[in-house]
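During the second half of the funding period, the structural biology subgroup turned its attention to how the target accommodates small molecules. The most pressing case was guanosine-5'-diphosphate, which had performed well in the primary screen but for which no bound structure existed. We therefore specified the complex as follows and requested a full 3D prediction, including the ligand pose.
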Amino acid sequence: LPVVAIVGRPNVGKSTLVNRILGRRAAVVQDVPGVTRDRISYEALWNGKRFTVMDTGGWDPKATGIGASITRQAQFAMETADVIVLVVDSQVGATDTDLAAARVLRRSDRPVILVANKVDDERSEANVAELWSLGLGEPQPVSALHGRSSGDLLDLVLDAMPEAPREQEQEEGPRRVALVGRPNVGKSSLLNRLAKDERSVVDSVAGTTVDPVDSIVTLGGEEWRFVDTAGLRRKVNTASGMEYYASLRTEGAIQSAEVAVVLLAADEVISEQDQRVISQVVDAGRALVIAFNKWDTLDEDRHDQLEREVERDLARIKWATRVNISATTGRGVGKLADHLRWALASWEKRVPTAELNQFVRALVQETPPPARGGRAPKIKYVTQADIRPPRFVVFSTGFLEAGYRRFLERKLREQWGFSGTPIEVSVKVRE
Ligand code: GDP
């Protein structure tokens, strides 16, 4: 189960918060057996997601002094938790001890949520803003009396949680691939080639969860599940008017896949229909491999022409990995597995928060965001909110224009690769 660790000084209200998380709305499923009073874990359920809440408070009686204790709490949380919640007393503000904990947690590659507790009145609301100084992003105000409810906080915690618990990601079976492209680019031919050259279980396997419309193909020493290939194995009617259904089918395949291979015919110009398929993949946030098929037909003239078309028509997906193949001769097909692996690795990459902020801070210093209406927005903090695909949230004091967001995106791509995956950079404006 994903673990949410609660970290904080004594008396900031950790236990109250844990009780609220476990309270009326998030059902306590069970007490984890064998826990002592100084290390409390509970299994909880919220919005259909199960997770463990762990109160690290008072966990380490060996540590001398509160400062040492909280540093250990934070370290422990970083080693064991999927999401870390640091609780701070907004009425007191950030103490040296809070700063010590924050310093440790800023190095965390797990998401950290900063909770400003005891926001009961307007005075403490003003104090909340000050907690930005902890360098852990936006402080989330919570109050036992009023203010933001624990439900909102839980939504935030669950949003920060990895899609699937880390251990399970490996067990899901073969990676799911959508083989898509307009009619006649060679999808059926490629699938047949893969099925012929390699061991493949094309039909449903009794007693397994393999969907009969999927094909399991071994490629590059690994099994892959090509989703919704029934129509490719038994050619379906692609007469006009069927295009709508073809596109629905493509959408379905992309939705159930992790990575899509968009097949293009190298001997024909890149068409609007090709572009639509590419957009479907990008909009769905899936990893993307571009494969130019029918490479065997290319003469030098067409080759040069194609490279110019790619420059012009595929500029928006420069980041996609590209492989040239021939389903007929088998050329390049073996390389497909490497491209799938690269794209998936980028799609799942998580950049450590500290590294990310260090990089962006230097970048912003060199090229600050342009001023609008006389005031230049200041970038406070960047966090990678999600993977599959990577999503970044930039906290800024003002609106960042599209050009600057694209600049940030480009620099993030340059720094960490991210070839083969769309990435998202969004901006949250906080004064
Ligand atoms: P689909 O509609 O995308 O499934 O395309 P098909 O697999 O039916 O292929 C369309 C046509 O292109 C067929 O006549 C294939 O023989 C041909 N074709 C497919 N791949 C290649 C290739 O790599 N080289 C050449 N020369 N022809 C190919």
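Two results from this model are relevant to the next phase. The first strand starts at residue 3 and ends at 8. Residues 353-429 form a domain with the GMP Synthetase; Chain A, domain 3 fold (CATH 3.30.300.20).
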